[in-house]
Amino acid sequence: MTNHNVVVRDAKSGEFLLPPIVSKGRSNIAVGRPKYTRKIITDNEGRGGVKISSWIDSMRDSSPTRVKPATSSSETEENNSWIVNHPSALNMFEQIASASKEKQIVMFLDYDGTLSPIVEDPDRAFMTNEMREAVRSVACYFPTAIVTGRCIDKVYSFVKLGGVYYAGSHGMDIKGPSINHENKKGRQGVLFQPANEYLSMIDKAYKILLESTKSIPGVKIENNKFCLSVHYRCVEEKMWAALAEKVRVVLDNYPKLRLTQGRKVLEIRPTIKWDKGKALEFLLESLGYANSGDVLPVYIGDDRTDEDAFKVLRSRGQGIGILVSKVPKETNASFSLQDPTEVKQFLQRLVEWKQLSQYGV
Ligand SMILES: O=P(O)(O)OC[C@H]1O[C@H](O[C@H]2O[C@H](CO)[C@@H](O)[C@H](O)[C@H]2O)[C@H](O)[C@@H](O)[C@@H]1O
User: Fold this and answer.
1) Atom 10 (ligand 1): residue with closest C-alpha?
2) Distance between CA atoms of 263 and 154, rounded to whole angstroms?
3) Where is this region: Disordered (predicted)?
């Protein structure tokens, strides 16, 4: 089988070369398969007979699992290989732009850790005005979706842009852009809600968790409509086992709910096979690009839940996955950006490049 995933440096210029490879009629510039193994709390571990200690290990790892800092030369090499296998999307901008020639870019943006920095209080994860302007401009040129674990109303209160798609609750609540950018009421209706029947179950689980975790200082339970976030960023580590136990009890009582993990957060969601990757596919299909080779999806995200979307890009053999991270991590993304500031710069460059190319520059 052809290896589609290799970054090659030009021997003379030292530049990265990304040959477009045709796969099932699609162009592929995905690179660098991760060689790290990943431990994650799976559905099976999430209930009955669970070892809470394995949860705690996983909670410590946070998301996506950080590759340990180098302590030997082979580990230094491994860290160096991170930047070779996941080069900066800013440094590789020209190659990414040229991969999009003759193709429609569709932009997918995670919210927390991507458009806004990670902060202690989830209710104060604001994005800057500059970032909002960058997203607004990108959405003028390319169909753009915000794909987030948050519920749509909450993320909309941060993003405040009408001209984009919103895929909230990890893609389980998808809405189209408004017709009138300034008028929230004009927002196009629901496009897809695959977990509708779980609404009341999620609500009950939310109430139970609110009550049962009251005695654990620092915990925050967020109702994201089709899923719940149990935040432990501000919970002392000695209380994590007690918190995990409360979550386990809920999962035992609601076998149709399962557990996933994000950055210092345990997430409870329906057992349906739906995630950010499925939402990406759904949106591409809605936009008329289901089996098209004329599209270049670009997905930027920082978290474990974004890996589902990166995996979809890999399996489609199409598109650009960009992980937002300052440190080497296990990921299916091909490129990296260090933080939301770099994400903003990347979006701004994309807009400038599009404007120039429209004038034939
Ligand atoms: O898919 P995302 O947009 O990345 O949302 C994932 C979760 O993000 C939020 O929690 C995370 O960000 C908080 C604010 O910076 C931080 O305090 C927390 O530790 C992170 O896990 C959000 O609050 C969750 O509801 C989302 O599911």
Assistant:
1) 122
2) 18
3) 60-79
End-to-end CA distance of the chain: 38
Over residues 239-251, the pLDDT tens digits come to 999 999 999 999 9
Q: What angle do CA 307, 221, 273 make, to 5 degrees?
A: 35
Q: 43, 57, 61, 110: which is the annotated catalytic residue? A: 110
User: For residues 196 and 59, what is the distance between their CA atoms, to the nearest angstrom?
Assistant: 29
Q: Which residues line ligand 1 (CB under 6 A)?
A: 110-113, 118-120, 122, 125, 148-150, 222, 224, 229, 231, 233, 262-265, 267, 303, 305
Q: Rounded CA gap, 349 and 21, in Å? A: 25
Chain centroid to CA 307: 6
C-alpha 293 – ligand 1 centre gap (Å): 33
Tens digits of residue pLDDT in 199-235: 999 999 999 999 999 999 999 999 999 999 999 999 9
Rounded CA separation 253/238 (Å) = 25
Q: Is 252 a catalytic residue?
A: no
Read off the pTM. 0.86
Atom of ligand 1 nearest to the CA of 115: 3
The minimum-distance atom of ligand 1 relative to the CA of 231 is 19
190 C-alpha vs ligand 1 centroid, how far in Å? 23
> Of 246, 240, 261, which Cα lies nearest the Cα of 208?
246
Cα angle 19, 21, 27; round to 5: 105
Helices (H), 146-239: 152-159, 199-212
Residues 6+ apart with CB under 8 A from 178: 162, 163, 184, 186, 187, 188
